[in-house]
Structure formats: structure tokens, C-alpha cells
Amino acid sequence: MKNLLLTSLCLALLSCGSLRVYSDHDTTVDFDSYKTYAFFKPGIDEVEISDLDKKRILKAIESVLDAKQLTKSETPDLLINLAVKSSNEVFINQNNNMMGFGFGYGWGWGWPYNNNIARVSSQTNGMLFIDLIDTKTKQLVWQGKGKGFISEYTKKRTERIQLFVSEILKNYPPNKE
């Protein structure tokens, strides 16, 4: 359950913080030949995130690919799969403030004051992978991933997911080399 919650938050990558995207592809593939796509249901069903977030991601992918002139089909050229990873980072910030009041110059009687403050915070880093698989060769031909900070408190979750997916798929199809 804890893992499910953590990875569910992963798709809120999407709350605050910077977003970094990367992509890689098979340089021998002619991406202009791909015209249709479908989602790889068995792979997507295994992703441990909430069903609501899955729907948001799939809808965002459909929107972006439609704008790129790819059509959803029962007999696709490409299969789309998702993967999610998350990790926690803990930050400890400690301040030791020491001061005192006293009489005399350099020595004498006084009252010291010590204020130790320790602040502990954590943030979850999440990654969303979008894999494009050629249906004829059954090979991965393109992979995009986005990495960002996660917050469980996201008011505009749908918009953030749309932005996140758009940024990942911005590099598809890749430039011809």
C-alpha cells in the first residue's frame, strides 16, 4: 500500500519544482512510417498508480499524439507503454545559535542562551517513462522520460499531467540526423 501511494504520487511529478525531460531513440528507424498507435494494456495495467492518474496520462498522450497526426487504431504501428519510478530524499537543516549576556569585558558573570533548531523535510522525486514499441519488430524504438518533484497536494493535477506528458513527447518524432 505504501508503495502504491508513493508511486501514485509519482504522477503528480507534477506539482512543484523543476521538470527535466530526456528522450532516446533507435537511429535506424524511419519514424515517418508510423501513423497509428495503441496503448499496451497489459503493461499499463501493471503500473502502480491510481486509475485516475492513469486515465489522465493516457488522455494527455492521446491529445499530444493526435496533434502530431498519429491515429489511435486497433491495428497499430506503435504500442505505447508506461513505467513509473519514485524515490524519497530527506533534508536535515540544523542551526545552532549561541549567545549570551553578561557583565564585564571579556569575562564575568552572564546568562547564556542556546537555541538549537533542526528542520527535517522530505520530497519525493518521480519519473514517468513513455515507451514506444514497434509492433512489427516488437522492439523499443523511442523512450521519453520526465523527472520532477512530487507533491501529494496538487490542485491542478490534470493540467500538470498534460504539461508533463507534452514536455516528454515534445521530442517525438526525433529530428532526422
TrEMBL record:
Signal peptide: 1-23
Pfam families: DUF4136 (PF13590)
Claim: Signal is one of the keywords in the record: yes
Highest taxon of the lineage: Bacteria
UniProt cross-references to InterPro entries, sorted A to Z: DUF4136 (IPR025411)
Keyword Transmembrane: no
Entry keyword set: Signal
Domain DUF4136, residue spans: 21-174
Protein name, UniProt field: DUF4136 domain-containing protein
Organism: uncultured Flavobacteriia bacterium
Classification lineage: Bacteria, Pseudomonadati, Bacteroidota, Flavobacteriia, environmental samples
